[in-house]
Amino acid sequence: MIKHLKRILSLATILSAQSCSEDELLATSRANAEAIARTTFAKRFNLHPQFVPVVYSHDRGHYTSVIYYSNKCYRLYMHGDVVMSKSSIPILPKGTQKVISVIMDYPNLAFNESMDLWEQAQQSINDDHYEFAQQSGFDPIVQFKNINVLVDPDEINDKSPNFISSYVRSLGYTDSDYDIIALIDLNFDDPAGGFAVPGEGFVNIGWFYNESVAKSLNQEILKGVAFAIYHHEIGHLWGWEHEWSDAIVSTFITDPSLFGWTDLDGDGVPEIIDSNPYGL
Ligand SMILES: [Ca+2]
Ligand SMILES: [Ca+2]
Ligand SMILES: [Zn+2]
Fold first, then answer.
1. What is the 3-state composition of the chain as percent helix, strand, coil, each rounded to the nearest 5?
2. 182: CA distance to ligand 3 center in Å?
3. Which of 50, 90, 186, 234 has the fewest CB atoms nearer than 10 Å to its CB?
4. Which ligand is nearest to the CA of 272?
5. Which SUPFAM superfamilies does the entry link to (predicted)?
6. In sequence order, which residues have a C-beta less than 8 Å from that of residue 204 and are 6 or more positions away?
7. DSSP string, the chain
8. Tens-digit pLDDT profile for residues 203-249
9. With a threshold of 0.70, does the pTM exceed it?
10. How far is the CA of 49 from the centre of ligand 2 (A)?
11. How far apart are alpha carbons 218 and 117 in whole angstroms?
12. Measured between alpha carbons, how far is 205 from 32 in angstroms, rounded to an integer?
């Protein structure tokens, strides 16, 4: 019921945001959704892709289409005959991304004793990208270069992106050393989720495990933390929204075609690094 209500509310929001009655087609089939996506990219963004990713979200009950072009991310959500569109300038989901993790070293969790496991968890993310690309015969499209800094929580009395980035600079790191700051704040006395601040290249993750999970670090827990940071929160920095499709593939948070990690126009180059992507 709540889910249904939320859906109605979001549809109402979309309808009120719509200024025109274009898009008469119903997005009831994939082919229709593709046609709607191409029409809408042309009308609203003056982009004319011949090949568009279109992925149905069972969770959200809509089709999603996303294209990255000229450093921007354009996305559409197609609910029946209603299309919501947005654009943004994200960090692009390609290349080597330098991440500095500022890790709060709470004494009761002893993260400092699990650094090897944490580095393995970070490596497993790079392996995810490597294996995905290899399956399609591509070189890895995304790889992370990680710097980890353990800090005494007493030194961090402000967890804002501004404070954390000035803290990082006080350690001698400069802008060229990192693209993204990840604040790893696993305080199980004060559980929290995670969030991303796209404009600042900043993500934060709290202790998000529920009561049934032991309050200690092991390989599985740290892999979960790495997934939350690198696949979920950094996904937000790349333009990903929860409204994109469900995580129907186990490795990634969403369908790889929405990040431009597949070749749609058949030239053998994934769209995110294709010089003429989506047949544009
Ligand atoms: Ca291509
Ligand atoms: Ca191409
Ligand atoms: Zn999120």
1. 40, 20, 40
2. 14
3. 50
4. 1
5. Metalloproteases ('zincins'), catalytic domain
6. 159, 182, 183, 185, 194, 195, 196, 197, 233
7. -HHHHHHHHHHHHHHHH--S----S-TTSHHHHHHHHHHHHHHHH----SS---EEETTTTEEEEEEEETTEEEEEEEETTEEEEEEE----S-EEEEEEEEEE--TTT-GGGGHHHHHHHHHHHHHHHHHHHHHTTPPPSEEEEEEEEEE-GGG-S--SHHHHHHHHHHTT--GGG-SEEEEEE--TTS---EEEEGGGTEEEEE----TTS-SS--HHHHHHHHIIIIIIIHHHHTT--TTS----SSSSSS-GGGGT-S--SSSSS-GGG-SSGGG-
8. 999 999 998 888 999 999 999 999 999 999 999 999 999 999 776 66
9. yes
10. 10
11. 7
12. 39
Residue among 236, 254, 164 nearest 193 (CA): 236
**Is the per-residue pLDDT at 251 higher than 90?**
no
Name the residues around ion ligand 1, CB cutoff 5 A. Answer: 263, 265, 267, 269, 274
For residues 166 and 119, give the distance between their C-alpha atoms in angstroms, rounded to a whole number: 24
Locus of tokens 């803290």: 167
Distance 73 CA to ligand 1 centre (A): 16
Residue from 264, 237, 275, 268 nearest 50 by CA: 264
